[in-house]
Amino acid sequence: MPVSDLTTSSTNRARTMTALFLAVAMAIVVGTALAFEHIGGYIPCALCLEQRMPYYVGAPLMLVAAVISLAGGPSWAVRGLLAVGGLLMLYGLVLGVYHSGVEWHWWDGPASCATSADAVTKDAGSLLGDLSSKKPPSCDSAALRVLGLSFAGWNVLASAALAAIAIRGALIKH
């Protein structure tokens, strides 16, 4: 087998593994947020919900990139999808920094975030009624801090790491 074929095969494998890793990591991050909400009872504010969007789009997109790579599809398509994944995570990073700044009162948050929240519904029978009556919490107070970071702060770190991995994967040539 020529050296160029070995390099291409190794590069395709690296892209596939990168895309699969990103899909799983993005799913774990957003799954953790959902677990804190539905199991832990932490009601997300409007900015928290917005920060989940890059993960909801990115995880399936990275699965598509992995499938294209596994199927021997064009490298430009896989690289392009990895780049889009990196841009999504950079967007998530910006949202996380913005939300963290709102929590630390460095700047004001959106007007839609100045509300108070009720408890999470545990009874499925009253769920529909609660959907219209419950208000999300204010974006300017962290519901929980772990090692000094709020959920938004942890999202900054996760988004930065995943953006770096995706962009690195997109820049692999051959």
Summarize this structure briefly.
This protein has 174 residues and is mainly α.
Number of helices: 5
**Elements, N to C (H/E):** HHHHH
The major sheet is characterized as:
none
Helix content: 55-70%
| End-to-end CA span | 16 Å
Strand content: under 5%
In total, the number of strands is 0
Radius of gyration: 19 Å
* Global outline: elongated
* Helix-strand category: mainly alpha
Query: What is the residue-mean pLDDT, rounded to a whole number?
Result: 82
Low-pLDDT sequence parts: 1-7
Describe the model.
The protein has 174 residues and is mostly helical. It is 68% helix and 0% strand. The chain contains 5 helices and no strands. It has helices at 3-38, 46-70, 75-103, 127-133, 151-171. Helix 1 (3-38) packs antiparallel against helix 2 (46-70), helix 1 packs parallel to helix 3 (75-103) and helix 3 packs antiparallel against helix 5 (151-171). The radius of gyration is 19 Å and the shape is elongated. The model is unreliable at 1-7 (pLDDT under 50).
